[in-house]
What does this fold into?
Amino acid sequence: MSDQNAVPDEQAVPKEKKPHDPNEINPKLTSDIHYWAKELHVTGQQLHEAIRVHGTNAKKVREALKHHGA
It folds into this structure.
């Protein structure tokens, strides 16, 4: 018999990767850039520019990028 209709094990379903630190954006971690760019609705380049200007504090970067529709 085949288990084609079986529901996948909860552990087998990939979960959204969370940032390394919810208060700081680490621009050297690809996973952080991907997470925060998606979270803030900007490109990775826009995120890097905001980090360069405003630092790595997630709250400050979020505030600086809020006009992008985040």
